[in-house]
Amino acid sequence: MQETKKAAVIGLGSMGWGAALSLLKTGFAVRGCDIRSDALARFTEAGGDACTTPALAAETADVILVYVINSKQVEDVVFGPNGALETAKPGTVFLLCATMAPSATTDIAERLETAGMLVIDAPVSGGHVRALAGEITVMASGSQEAFDRASAALDAISAKVFRLGDRPGAGSQVKMINQLLAGVHIAATAEAMTLAAKAGIDLKTLYDVIRVSAGSSWMFENRGEHIVSGNYAPRSAVNIFVKDLGIVASEAEKAGAITPLAASALSLFVEASEAGLGQEDDAAVVKILARKSGAILPGMEE
Length: 302
What we know:
With 302 residues, this protein is an alpha/beta fold. 54% of the residues lie in helices and 13% in strands. Helix 8 (170-198) runs parallel beside helix 13 (285-293) and helix 9 (203-210) packs antiparallel against helix 10 (218-229).
């Protein structure tokens, strides 16, 4: 089968931006869509074709990557006015890369398939830096035909694609578990850094020790550096984990599973969001613990 080289990326945020640039680097003609004019201007400068609506982005694409925040936004950009479905050709492959509840993913996929489209449930992980390098992990499920048609695009954006099933929904289930761990690890990192500060331990020294010791995690290594430097510019925001751990809580209740650590982490993210930190980097949950503990961390000096 002739490999497609025309793609659309809807949502040029942290992860979508990396995917769009990775596709451009591997020879795709890429149309990118975002509500932010500055993102569209940057995309044009990078060699992409900037579009103001999903319908414009989708009209020439063989593969459409949807990188918005939640299921409501996916529905809006796909099925809403000027949505991608208005112009997408029959047989277009939709890669649903947003983190959504598995039930929402399944519903959206079924509606797309009824409209004659192919769908891969394709949530991603790895962070902004890996996205820019085309080295993210994709937790994917969908039909063989969809994978065949989207193989070049998946190769361009990822270092590893896990095939988790032949129906959409399985990818979102695994991503949910990943987010449970990620959220708990961020909260644990915040707790550890707060205790270290109260104990008078130099945070940079602590970070250097722990990141190569048994207590480390990918999130400690990544978000711990944010706390040490006091840099809370959002790479992934607090509100993202309010959403993602909310999905964990809801799905755990449906399944009858007990998730006390996820529940505790969710409570911390919700508190941070309600304190006005929702748009800051997710590591900003440390500010809640630090304030309660009477600790002053880098970036928190009054």
